[in-house]
Amino acid sequence: MLQLSKSLRMRTLASLEDSYELCRQITAEYSKTFYMGTQLMPFAKRRAIWAIYVWCRRTDEWVDGPLASSTTAETLDHWEKHLESIFAGDPIDDEDVALVDTLSQFPLDIQPFRDMIAGQRMDLYRSRYETFEELKLYCYRVAGTVGLMSMAVMGVAQSDQKAPWDQEQGFDIPTEEAIALGIANQLTNILRDVGEDARRGRIYLPLEELALFNYTQDDLLNGVVDDRWRELMRFQIQRARKYYTQAERGIRALSPDIRWPVWSALLLYSKILNEIERNQYDVFSKRAYVPTRRKLLCLPVALLRSKVL
Ligand SMILES: CC(C)=CCC/C(C)=C/CC/C(C)=C/CC/C(C)=C/COP(=O)(O)OP(=O)(O)O
């Protein structure tokens, strides 16, 4: 019976090609920046990243999407079982077909996927973070994990593709740097979306850091932009940039064919911080956005860096 229902289900699922195409469309629709990055990758890696992106997006939707108000801990337990089924090679939905294929081709571990679900659990119960350590754990879970997943697909440089001194620097598998890029991206996202999150009653910035700048939760919820806020934002932006710098050091340890896309994604996303500065730190009434022309300008810069750094 179980066998029968499984085979019935299998027959109604999308073909491999259609599933990857679905993942491509979803990635293009939801994340312009990362989609642009993936377009610079070799075919097999590009579509694997789309399959992973879609699973991450679906995971995020449980707490951020239209059905979020009915999501409970049990919903996420169920989603974790769904994940185990994918890792067992048994797709449930059309989007899973591509991910099952990706798992058969790249050495992906289930742990970062589980950690990301744990990150969504945090979002379910918490709307405040007291310290940066707590926020950092959240950022690892919802975004650092994406770095780990992506790295398994992108691959690291073979020893004959590296200069001898790279090995001495212990850059064999740049795990910390991959996590750092996820954290940098997430911190950027948090800074860009402070106003939007406040309107949903959420504050991601650590409360003890607000206090350090004499800025209150009420100030934030009311969108007060003054010297205290600008100082606080300068401090936050500086820290996000440190994570970008750490990530940059790991890129040359990656396989050469994906250094350009990773540099591009890094530059494109970090530019949002420049836009926040350009907007005089007003993240309440404006959404920091990098215009397409400025985005395109990043690509040759990224190419150059991927060759020389
Ligand atoms: C640097 C090294 C060694 C490896 C690279 C490893 C990678 C690719 C890390 C990047 C991880 C990543 C893409 C994290 C996602 C974080 C994030 C905040 C995504 C935001 O996604 P959306 O919310 O869809 O984006 P927008 O809303 O900004 O379009």
Automatic annotation (TrEMBL):
Gene3D superfamilies: Farnesyl Diphosphate Synthase
Catalytic reactions on record: 2 (2E,6E,10E)-geranylgeranyl diphosphate = 15-cis-phytoene + 2 diphosphate
This protein's UniProt keywords: Carotenoid biosynthesis, Transferase
GO biological process: carotenoid biosynthetic process
Functional pathway: Carotenoid biosynthesis
InterPro entries: Isoprenoid_synthase_dom_sf, PhytoSynCyanob, Squ/phyt_synthse, Squalene/phytoene_synthase_CS, Trans_IPPS_bact-type, Trans_IPPS_HH
Pfam families: SQS_PSY
CDD domains per record: Trans_IPPS_HH
GO MF annotation list: geranylgeranyl diphosphate synthase activity; squalene synthase [NAD(P)H] activity
Tagged with keyword Transferase: yes
SUPFAM superfamilies: Terpenoid synthases
EC code: 2.5.1.32
PROSITE patterns found in the cross-reference section: SQUALEN_PHYTOEN_SYN_1 (PS01044), SQUALEN_PHYTOEN_SYN_2 (PS01045)
Top-rank taxon, per record: Bacteria
Family statement: Belongs to the phytoene/squalene synthase family.
PANTHER family according to UniProt: BIFUNCTIONAL LYCOPENE CYCLASE/PHYTOENE SYNTHASE
Protein name per Swiss-Prot or TrEMBL: 15-cis-phytoene synthase
Organism lineage: Bacteria, Bacillati, Cyanobacteriota, Cyanophyceae, Oscillatoriophycideae
